[in-house]
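Would you be willing to look carefully at the protein I have copied below?

:::
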Amino acid sequence: MITDSVYFKDNLDRVSELIESYNDEILLLRKTRIHDFTKEVITKKYNNLFLILPYEVETSSSSISISIHAIKVFDLYYKFNENITKLDYDTIIKAKNEFEDKKIYSDDKYIINDFLEEYFHNLTYDFSSIMDKVKQLFFFKGIESETIILQNILNHYKAIVADDKKQLVVFWGISLTKEISDIVTEMLIDVIEQRLLLLNPTITTNNIVSKTTYIDNSIKQIEWLGTQQELCELITELISKKWISPIREGERRKISNSITTFFDLTNTKRNESSKIEDSFYQLFKGEIIEGVRNYPFLDSKRYSRKFNTIENNNH
């Protein structure tokens, strides 16, 4: 039984290592651009990425391709989640200009780590919403049995992994290598098998092994009494003043997760449905502008810096 997204850590680390070692050119995947920047449209596109069991198949690939569209959906969705109902004019113009740029950079490959973390978080804690969406797919219309639907998807996934010439399209807007896609597909197979065990315990006769999530609870969290922005400022100041080593590309999500594990940020939640790990990461990753990482909230007139007087480490 999968009770926590930490269940996926080992496999996500495997994928992260493959992405880190991928040194070929990241290709531009052309997809439909965003023209309507309303909260409703962005949320719908986000749901199509992160609240679905993927089913499309493509020819096996040895390359990685990414759509600017997919990257911006992710960024804009979290901008709306910051209690914003409408994007400001400058943000929309900036997004449109990035679409026109039509450039994918080598470091863009690390967005895959973010997408997978986001996806398997949703798969763990919002499986019912995913199943509601799956039941709306045209080939499952009229079938209410979750067991029947999952068994069909399970067979579909197993056939894809066994076929050297095919791979699962994990995300609309990102094309992975066959090796990475198969690891993710096997993770999905594991999820479905564990779900089927919950729905029908007698299914163990089909050689599905029941598993449990192990969480190391030996860590005692420190309660953070400030805001998430203030914690983010503290960490970035300690890095810039050389009290903490620079963060390597591809490891920012892991470091962010470590911070939210070490610090108890419960009091910073805006509402009960807020995901602390995700909201803090959105602050911590900042924005890359002309190759330099920036933190827009630090320059906001509404934010007062607390830690900018920390001295440099001269040791």
